Amino acid sequence: MRYERLKDIVTLAIRMQGLRAGMTLDGIRAEFGVSRSTAERMRDAVEWAFGPLEIAESDDNKNHWRLGSDALRRLARISATELADLAAAADTLDASGFGARASALRELDTKLRATLHGDSLARIEADIEVLAQAEGLAMRPGPRPQLDTDLLDSLRDAIATCRIVELRYLSQSTGRRSRQRIEPYGLLYGNRAFLVGRTDWTGGMRLWRLANMSEPRVTGETFARDPGFDLEAYAKRSFGTFQEDPVDVVLRFTAEAKRDAAAFLFHPGQSVEENADGTLTVRFTAGGIDEMCWHLVTWGESVTVEEPNRLRERLTDMCAALVAHHGPQ
Q1: Which residues contact 153 (CB under 8 A, 6 or more apart)?
Q2: 281: confidence class by pLDDT, cuts 50, 70, 90
Q3: Is there a common fold for 3-74 and 149-233?
Q4: Contact between 292 and 271 (Cβ < 8 Å)
Q5: How does residue 24 score in pLDDT terms, banded at 50, 70 and 90?
Q6: Which end of the chain is more exposed for a tag (fewer CB within 10 A), N or C?
Q7: 106 vs 184: which has the higher pLDDT
Q8: Is a pLDDT exceeding 90 seen at residue 124?
């Protein structure tokens, strides 16, 4: 049996055990891109290798095969990346106001860790700590880009092992592609996803847009990580993922919008004050003037920028440009 087919058999066994509804032959064909006869052989191979299959209840007049044996549990390995992603999903739900769902995911995380042996858990938790420190979430509303899974895997590997990554990078300003060698420190997710890292020629940290990367390669060269770098502190300097010199921002929301604004997290370091006239004042310190403007437009006339003037002027210019662009032809 080829290696690829063996991997498919194990994957199918995991599906048959993990999905309550089981797998039909049509489902096997669709997921693995095989013929019906091959799907039948794969189903029979799972039963031969891992124990008897049972038919799950269904109302579509098809046989839904499930694996009832627990022989597979020794092969279904839980990785540090999977647990780190689970923790990140819980943080995302928390930041979005879904505390109960976040608690449910953290409870699942605890149960999964309980199934691991002591040595395996110790190794995984060390890797999880590295990944957790190296990935940050800049929560902002709006569409998100599709991320290349292979690229993310390569970058995560390079971050966790402190290895230099080589890639081709498309410059936003010139439209040219160049070969870059980057010391990767972490990932920031927001309306766009960025790698935080530095090169010999940049000196300090800078943001590299993942959408502009191609042909990544994790080299065998290592680098000494700066122990003083804090990804969370770096992310808090910005509104979203734009890195600029921080400014003190003061926003005043109307009484009608007060309830919505009070429930919204504009920045992790914000303070909120209810005024005597029923309005709400939100204060925070961050950079990223353009990204602030993009978000403030969604609040329309329910928000007033009180400080800084630079933000008011930029918002005015942006809105005027939009009016000119979308006005009568």
Answers
A1: 81
A2: very high
A3: no
A4: no
A5: very high
A6: C
A7: 184
A8: no
Q: What are the backbone dihedrals phi and psi of residue 97, each rounded to the nearest 5 degrees, phi first?
A: 95, 10
Is pLDDT at 212 greater than 90 in this prediction? no
What pLDDT, on the 0 to 100 scale, is given for residue 207?
82
H-run or E-run covering 56: strand 53-56
64 within 8 A of 21, measured Cβ to Cβ: yes
Q: Taking a C-beta distance cutoff of 8 angstroms, is the pair 247, 286 a contact?
A: yes
Helix boundaries (H) for the chain: 3-18, 25-32, 36-50, 80-95, 99-114, 118-134, 149-161, 231-236, 258-262, 289-296, 309-326
What is the pLDDT at residue 291?
Answer: 78
Confidence label for 264 from pLDDT (cuts 50, 70 and 90): confident
- DSSP code of 15? H
- The token pair at 240 is 């979203």
Token couple for 151: 């690229």
pLDDT tops 80 at residue 145: no
* C-alpha 53: how far from chain center: 36
pTM above 0.90, yes or no: no
Q: What is the pLDDT of residues 158-186, one digit of tens each?
A: 988 899 999 999 887 787 889 999 999 98
* Cβ–Cβ under 8 Å, residues 279 and 253: yes
How many whole angstroms separate alpha carbon 166 and alpha carbon 318? 37
Identify the DSSP state of 297: G
- What does CATH list as the number for 3-74? 1.10.10.10
CA count, 13 A, side-chain hemisphere, 144: 14
Spell out the long-range contacts of 220-223 with Cβ–Cβ below 8 A and sequence spacing 24 or more: 220/163, 221/163, 221/164, 222/161, 222/162, 222/163, 222/164, 223/162, 223/163, 223/164, 223/183
The residue count of the chain comes to 329
Q: Residue ranges of the domains in the chain?
A: 3-74, 80-137, 149-233, 237-326
3-state SS string for 78-110: CCHHHHHHHHHHHHHHHHCCCHHHHHHHHHHHH
CA 78 from centroid of its chain's CA atoms: 19
